[in-house]
Amino acid sequence: MSSVDFKVEIGGLKLRSPILLASGTVGYGHEIAEFINMNSLGGIVTKSISLKPRKGNPPQRIVETPAGMLNAIGLANVGVEEFIKEKIPFLKKYDVPVICNIAASSVEEYVECTRLLDYEESIKAFEINVSCPNVKEGGLQFGNDLKSVGIVTNKVRAVTKKPLIIKLSPNVSNISDFAQIVKDEGGDAVSAINTLVGTAFNIFTRKPKIKNVNGGLSGPAIKPIALAKVFEIKRKVEIPIIGIGGIMDWKDVVEFMIAGASAIQLGTVNFINPIAADQIKKDLEEYCVSNKIQKISELTGSYILE
Ligand SMILES: Cc1cc2nc3c(=O)[nH]c(=O)nc-3n(C[C@H](O)[C@H](O)[C@H](O)COP(=O)(O)O)c2cc1C
Q1: Could you tell me the CATH superfamily of domain 8-58+74-196+220-299?
Q2: Distance from the alpha carbon of residue 109 to the mean position of ligand 1, in angstroms
Q3: Is 132 considered catalytic here?
Q4: Which class for 167: exposed (0-12), middle (13-18), buried (19 or more C-beta within 10 A)?
């Protein structure tokens, strides 16, 4: 039994720990469940679910880069129906809050997907992935357009009373404007950040290393950017933040919380060290005990600027 109070609250979502697993990096929990104690996680965020199954992009879909990786999976997923039939029952075997991440190519699809999943009692919150092309607007990503993020938040809000988290894209100039519109339209929290656009070439074949050419950059390479985005939101908008981006160990968690995060998600680290979530929790507890921190939530936004 821990002497440190790990409980956190994110826009009405009460969690026993601030450590969550990030969307797309642990699928629907099957593989990671062999390595970690699912019952001590703060929560698991599912791979993005869309209304219909998606095959995703052709390979090569992943490539390692200095201090990170590029991925262009193309939102491959099983779709709502299969998710309800096959994936939810597996997750129900554990005492772990499920945060359902939703992807879509139209506002209507976001709404329909949320509506169909809303009755599932094991889903404790929705995380909306707005880093998706808006087919009706010529493929412009929802997450790069302030108005679209506002509309998606507003329309999804209307069909669920569960905590609504919007996962923000870092590929914008002022991320705090996006956090503000989420708040104004009834969102409960934001996750920051999704991946940054990147690419890589093979110098011998002169071809892109990723078939899709561009991919999403993640891992330690993006940590300083993610921290700056979390800090910008914290200073400008009063909304709970889930920090994501290059978190590899307990020190990174503390840094994100000091910058303003109420909770964090582990992404790329799960590929390198699948037991990271358990290790980080243990190390965080030691840090809190030796620094006389009784409640981990005290860390949130505790930065000192002079
Ligand atoms: C292989 C891979 C697949 C991902 N798939 C999704 C996804 O389906 N939906 C989503 O919102 N984010 C997805 N992400 C983004 C992560 O959830 C996270 O925001 C990002 O990787 C930054 O965190 P990290 O540096 O700790 O990995 C994916 C990331 C990776 C590496």
Answers
A1: Aldolase class I (3.20.20.70)
A2: 21
A3: yes
A4: buried
Tens-place pLDDT, residues 272-290: 999 999 999 999 999 999 9
The total of other beta-carbon atoms located within 10 Å of residue 281's CB is: 22
* Residue percentage of the chain with pLDDT more than 70: 99
Reported confidence tier of residue 117, pLDDT bands at 50, 70, 90 = very high
Distances (CA, A) of 14 to 6, 119, 125, 138, 207: 11, 19, 10, 39, 47
Choosing from 141, 252, 268 the residue with most ligand 1 atoms within 8 A of its CB, the one to mutate for a pocket test is 268
Minimum CA distance residue for ligand 1 atom 6: 24
Q: Hey, where are the domains in the chain?
A: 8-58+74-196+220-299
Please state whether 113 falls in left (phi above 0), alpha (psi between -120 and 50) or beta. alpha
Q: Specify burial of residue 119 (Cβ count, 10 A radius: 0-12, 13-18, 19+).
A: exposed
Distance from Cα 267 to the centre of ligand 1, integer Å: 6
pLDDT of residue 69: 98
Pocket residues: Cβ below 6 A from ligand 1: 22-25, 47-48, 69, 71, 73, 75, 101, 129, 167, 194-195, 218-219, 222, 244-247, 267-268
Q: Is 139 left (phi over 0), alpha (psi -120 to 50) or beta?
A: left
Closest residue CA from atom 28 of ligand 1: 24
Q: Decide: 17 and 44 in contact? Cβ < 8 Å.
A: no
